[in-house]
Amino acid sequence: MLVIGLTGGIACGKSTVSEMFLNCDRKVIDSDKISKSILDIDSSGYQEVIEAFGKEIVLPSGHINRKRLGEIIFNDDEKRQILNSIVHPKVVDAIKRRIQLYDLEGEDYVVVDIPLLFEAKLEYLVDFVVCVKVENEIQIERLMTRDGITKELALKKISSQMPLEEKCACADEVIDNSNSILDTKKQLVEILKKRDIVL
Questions:
Q1: Coil, strand or helix at 22
Q2: Which residues span the domain enclosing 96?
Q3: Of 7, 47, 106, 176, which one has the greatest count of Cβ atoms within 10 A?
Q4: How far is 120 from 145, CA to CA, in rounded Å?
Q5: What is the structure's pLDDT at 172?
Q6: What angle do CA 25, 30, 34 make, to 5 degrees?
Q7: Do residues 163 and 65 both lie within one domain?
Q8: How far apart are CA 4 and CA 143, in angstroms?
Q9: Which residues of the chain have pLDDT under 70?
Q10: Is there a contact between 109 and 3 (Cβ–Cβ < 8 Å)?
Q11: What is the pLDDT of residues 46-75, one digit of tens each?
Q12: Are 64 and 47 in the same domain?
């Protein structure tokens, strides 16, 4: 079974490409969803995260205040690394288990959607990488609209990630999502066709 890595810059439309696979009944492993589930009350990472960050991140309901946790790690590299050291290995294990499951179920290929694939050095999990990009100004505008934030904060979020040009240079294939959805789909179909894969 072939494993396709899907990545891209923040607000570049990676989820749009992900949806294209899902709409064709293809299996997509969403690392963000797995990562979020690790902070759920009944999950393996819940207690570890509270021990590392204290009761200030716990809501009255007992759930982890993700917004507060995000604020803490966004402004503190050391604390971000602590959170990553708890969550990261659990996410990787879950991805590996799902890849094995889909392989046993006889899938032709599976897509692993990992926004920080290169930053986390997870290329070894996949056979090839598709990176989704948009023009810089479009990325800023989409992020401001999506998150309801200022241009200054949008730029800060973008600069906290690996530069998009670097991601594209590291990828095997690049999709430019600056234009229409039809144009994006056409590029995806062409990329898969080169490798004898049907969407």
A1: helix
A2: 33-106
A3: 7
A4: 27
A5: 98
A6: 135
A7: no
A8: 25
A9: none
A10: yes
A11: 999 999 999 999 999 999 999 899 889 877
A12: yes
The tokens for 87 are 């969550």
Residue 119 sits in a domain whose CATH number is 3.40.50.300
Three-point CA angle 71, 76, 77, nearest 5°: 125
Q: Return the structure tokens found at 143.
A: 């992020």
Record the pTM.
0.90
Whether residue 178 contacts residue 138, with contact meaning beta carbons closer than 8 Å, is answered with: yes
SS3 199: coil
- In order of 46, 48, 53, 78, 118, the CA distances from 113 in angstroms are 23, 25, 28, 26, 12
Give phi and psi for 135, each to the nearest 5.
-65, 150
Residue 198: inside a domain, yes or no? no
Burial of 114 from C-beta contacts in 10 A (0-12 / 13-18 / 19+): buried
Contact 110, 102 (CB under 8 A): yes
Q: How far apart are CA 127 and CA 108, in angstroms?
A: 13
For residue 128, give Cα distances in angstroms to 34, 134, 163, 171: 21, 20, 20, 8
Q: Please state the length of the chain.
A: 199
